[in-house]
Amino acid sequence: MPKAKTKFICQQCGASHSKWSGRCDNCGEWNTLVEQSVASGSSSVAKAGSSGKPLAVQSIKDVAGEDISKRLGTGVRDLDDVLGGGVLPGAVMLLAGQPGIGKSTLLLQVTAHVAKQHRVLYVSGEESASQVRLRAQRLGAEKSEQLDFAASTTANDIASSIRQGDYAMVIVDSIQTLTLDEITSAPGTVSQITNSSNVLIRAAKESNTAVVLVGHVTKEGSIAGPKVLEHLVDVVLQFEGDRYGGFKIVRAIKNRFGSTNEAAIFEMYEEGLRAVENPSEALLAERNPSDGSVVLATLEGTRPLLVEIQALVNPTTFGYPKRTASGFDLNRLNLLIAVIERRTKLNLSDKDIYINVVGGLKLNDQAADLAICMAIASAAAGRRIDDKTVVFGEVGLGGEIRSVIAIDKRINEARKLGFTRAIGPRASKNNTFITSVGDIRSALIDYLQK
Q1: By CB count within 10 A, which of 47, 130, 186, 251 is most buried?
Q2: Handedness of CA 444, 446, 449, 450 (dihedral sign)
Q3: Of 188, 266, 253, the residue nearest 221 (C-alpha)
Q4: Handedness of CA 71, 73, 79, 81 (dihedral sign)
Q5: In b/e form, how buried is each residue of 57-90, taking b as 16+ CB within 10 angstroms?
Q6: Whether residue 356 sits in one domain with residue 437
Q7: What is the pLDDT, as a whole number, of residue 219?
Q8: Which helix (H) or strand (E) holds 16?
Q9: Cα–Cα distance between 393 and 142 in angstroms, integer?
Q10: CB atoms closer than 10 angstroms to residue 360
């Protein structure tokens, strides 16, 4: 018999190679090439192009609009906001996050709520029925008569169940475990993930069934598998946070039916995930005001939050000072340290600097710059900032304080929790609650107390 032809497919970008190598020439990733067999026989491209039929078109004004009332509520108002008003029938969503962060817990809670009015199917390729039953008992979802379960890793069978149209929602946990009968490669490879997801998406659109795919993440935190998976689905949800405690955040990276600026904040309890109604109060509940402690008025999506920034500055015992940041970009921290040294009289070249964002949050807000700078200066000089003051503002390379978005939301959140003053950019000087500053030097000199 002739020897079966094989090729090597990159699991990161999907590029094909005739032989194995340690590094993919297309994307530059290491150890991502996997051997796969090549299907024998292929039709002519010219023949395939001539076999098509003209499309049935219609005017865009005649297309029926979306009925918002048909969306399925998840039982969590904040999660509904992230999804754009709930789960849309026929939509395919991808939920990705670190192992153990609570993806399966959240989805089982959502399905238990949806199953009160609609039939729901939970398909697991990683757990047995008894394991899911234990979680359902802990979450109080085991008595739902409209919540069905199946253990399967075959995409063909799952797609057939979706096409029947018996279910309003189908959960697939997870897409990396599925295989397609027509493909011989191992589960989790680029070809299996791409083709399995295509089969499920077509079945979901044909039957108008909402499908949620659970995805894995790499050690760098990005969604595992080919990037085309994120393009195929309608909504991509990222589950972030510390798996061992603290707040957990669900945000939409991609959303064809709503905004990507919303975020749902959860906290894990024994009976499951619970939405945090007032995260600012919870984040500041155990605050102990001291030097190096600054309260930042930030935004998580469109929701204002007050979070404590802690800084610790110690003389270094080595020739090269150490900079460590938890919840803040390390490159941005090094840039801000350079601005402080250049635009003020503080000498930090022989100091170890440690930054911590309390609560396990990860800040992506440029308005955190001023709070980080003031926390570092406060810890280095041994001076405190007023306990009833919040800080926000972007710091430029010249040391100037630049304006930020949603100033009114930040101020209103600070007032709710009893703060009396905010230090911010000059663009907001018309507001009496804000004490405006023009540059980092004046902010440190005028508002750090002994």
Answers
A1: 251
A2: positive
A3: 253
A4: positive
A5: eeeeeeeeeeeeeebbbbebebbbbbbbebbbbb
A6: yes
A7: 79
A8: strand 16-17
A9: 49
A10: 19
Distance (Å, whole) CA 408 – CA 167: 44
Residue 195 tokens read as 């083709």
Beta bridge partners of 300: 303
* Total of domains in the chain: 3
Q: Report the C-alpha gap between 193 and 182 in whole angstroms.
A: 13
Of the candidates 368, 381, 385, the one whose C-alpha atom is nearest the C-alpha of residue 424 is: 368
CA distances (Å), origin 262, targets 70, 99, 155, 388 = 21, 23, 32, 28
Say whether both 236 and 353 belong to one domain. no
CA distance 71 to 2: 54
Closest to 13 in 3D by CA, of 193, 140, 181: 193
> Do 257 and 315 belong to one domain?
no
Q: Tell me which of 277, 307, 324 is where a domain ends.
A: 277
Least Cα distance to 97 among 44, 24, 173 occurs for: 173
For 394-431, the pLDDT digits (tens) are 999 999 999 999 899 999 999 999 999 999 997 655 67
Cβ(151)–Cβ(200) below 8 Å: no
Task: Please check whether residues 289 and 370 belong to one and the same domain.
Answer: yes
Whole-Å CA distances, 311 to 109, 321, 353, 382, 424 = 38, 15, 7, 11, 20
- Quick one: pLDDT at residue 432? 82
Answer yes or no: are the C-beta atoms of 246 and 273 closer than 8 Å. Answer: no
46: in domain? no
Phi, psi for 73 (deg, rounded to 5):
-75, 140
All residues at 6 or more sequence positions from 98 whose CB lies less than 8 Å from its CB, including other chains: 217, 221, 239, 243
pLDDT in tens, 346-394: 999 999 999 999 988 889 899 999 999 999 999 999 999 999 999 999 9
Neighbours of 257 (CB within 10 A): 18
Q: Where are the beta strands (DSSP E) in 270-339?
A: 272-275, 293-300, 303-315, 323-326
Tell me if 96 is assigned to some domain. yes
Domain check: are 314 and 429 in the same one? yes
CA 169 to chain centre: 22
The amino acid at residue 362 is K
Q: DSSP characters for 226-281?
A: -THHHHHSSEEEEEEE-TTSS-EEEEEEEETTS-SS-EEEEEEETTEEEE-S-HHH
115 and 254 together in one domain: yes
